[in-house]
Design a protein that fits this description.
The protein is α+β, with helices and mostly antiparallel strands. It is built from ten helices and six strands; from the N terminus they run H-H-E-H-H-E-H-E-H-H-E-H-E-E-H-H. The protein has two domains: 336 residues, Outer membrane efflux proteins (OEP) (Up-down Bundle); 71 residues, Outer membrane efflux proteins (OEP), CATH 2.20.200. It is elongated, with a radius of gyration of 40 Å.
Length: 424
């Protein structure tokens, strides 16, 4: 039986031209630059505006600490107040009030007296704010690393699938050449050959889809990392391994609650200090005159003290302390709930990891048997004894098993990535 009569058959032959297109796309991917997970993690951490914002907040808090130190040093100001109130034909301001004119050119010095404990409490408040920002920065870093790693694993999975389907297409192409010769020799029917070509066409379409998916997932990876790259890259296998988790009480995710609790306790101390007596000393020197009598002798100085003692404000102090204690209670509730969720989530992820790893051996056996079945059918095909339907079934079974192994490995890496998120 010859193969040149059917128009539909000729259309199916055109798969070879499409295959050339796929090979071209594969060639562009294979010759792209090799990059690993560390490259994208470093780029993401370096380009993140949120992490830079946190760093600027830490620097800003250090400036606040310097400003606080400067606030309790002597404050020196210069003042100049000058006024003239003329009386014309008996009309004008009362001279007893205005002295007609007033001219003051003074240098003022003010010094507040605050206890060392009060100042240290304010310093501690600034340090605790910095600690809170630092914790938020570390948690954001972990979140960014988890997102980038998850996307890298997804893109790497696409690339693995592309490589695998390319190998399968090469296998099918070799068997197609044998089947074509045998069909021309009337060993197999044209319908058998067409059935095989349909299987090849399906794999070719799947390979195209995987290439498109890889490009999309790779573009998303670059987007997360702040990298402008419209080309493709060959991704190295991610070095994903289980990391040692710290004790929950020393985890950065748990320390934020401790920091918040310390900040609230420090806030109560500041409220108490705000109700302590306040002593302030002042002094000034300069020229102050109304120019009514011997103005050239009106150079002088003065000094004194101010004392401010709170007596009664309607129990506002107790109200403020009660509000802070309510916040402390809320923080404790969030902390306890987080700890319960943390333990539950880690246990759940470890259980998922154990189940995923237990499937690997079974899937590998399925792949071995499916591959062996393909090899047997391939040998039978050379002698004309193979059933094309059996060969197609063996190929599809092999593809299913390989896809299952890839997905299982990817699931394993994604679960480990979720666990490693809590490693700080």
């Amino acid at each position: 039986m010859k193969l040149h009569g059917s128009q539909e058959f000729e259309k199916l032959i055109n798969w070879k031209w499409a295959a050339l297109t796929v090979l071209f796309l594969l060639n562009s991917v294979c010759h792209a630059q090799n990059r690993n997970l560390d490259f994208y993690l470093s780029a993401a951490l370096e380009n993140s505006p949120l992490l830079k914002d946190y760093q600027n907040q830490v620097v800003s808090n250090s400036i606040d600490s310097q400003r606080l130190r400067a606030t309790y040093r002597a404050q020196v100001t210069g003042t100049s107040n000058n006024a003239y109130a003329p009386v014309i034909n008996g009309w004008g301001y009362d001279q007893a009030l205005t002295n007609i004119g007033s001219f003051n050119e003074l240098v003022n010095v003010n010094q507040a007296f605050v206890s060392k404990k009060n100042i240290n409490t304010q310093y501690r408040g600034i340090r605790l704010v910095s600690d809170s920002v630092y914790s938020a920065k570390k948690m954001s870093e972990q979140e960014l690393k988890r997102s980038v790693t998850a996307q890298y694993i997804t893109a790497f999975s696409d690339l693995q699938q592309v490589t695998f389907y390319n190998e399968v297409n090469e296998l099918l192409s070799n068997q197609e050449s044998i089947l074509k010769k045998l069909t021309r020799g009337n060993t197999y029917k044209q319908t058998d050959y067409l059935t095989f070509l349909v299987t090849m066409k399906q794999q070719e379409i799947q390979l195209k889809q995987l290439l498109i998916q890889f490009r999309n997932d790779y573009a998303q990876l670059c987007y997360l990392c702040g990298i402008f790259d419209t080309s493709s890259a060959t991704l190295d296998s991610p070095a994903i391994y289980m990391q040692q988790l710290p004790d929950v009480n020393s985890s950065v995710f748990f320390l934020r609650y401790k920091t918040d609790s310390q900040m609230l306790a420090n806030q109560i101390e500041l409220i108490n200090y705000s109700y302590h007596p306040k002593l302030n000393a002042f002094a000034n020197a300069g020229f102050s005159s109304s120019f009514l009598y011997q103005a050239y002798k009106n150079f002088g100085f003065s000094f004194g003290v101010n004392l401010n003692v709170p007596i009664y404000d309607g129990h506002q102090r107790n109200m403020l302390q009660h509000k802070v204690k309510l916040l402390e209670n809320t923080n404790d509730n969030y902390r306890d709930f987080f700890k319960r969720q943390y333990d539950q989530q880690i246990a759940m992820l470890r259980q998922q990891l154990s189940g995923t790893e237990s499937l690997t051996a079974d899937i590998l056996d399925q792949i071995k048997y499916s591959r062996g079945l393909i090899d047997v059918n391939g040998k039978l095909l050379e002698t004309g004894d193979a059933k094309i339907s059996d060969l197609v079934i063996a190929i599809n079974t092999y593809l299913t098993a390989k896809n299952l192994l890839t997905q299982n490995n990817i699931s394993r890496m994604q679960i480990i990535n979720q666990i490693n998120y809590w490693n700080r």
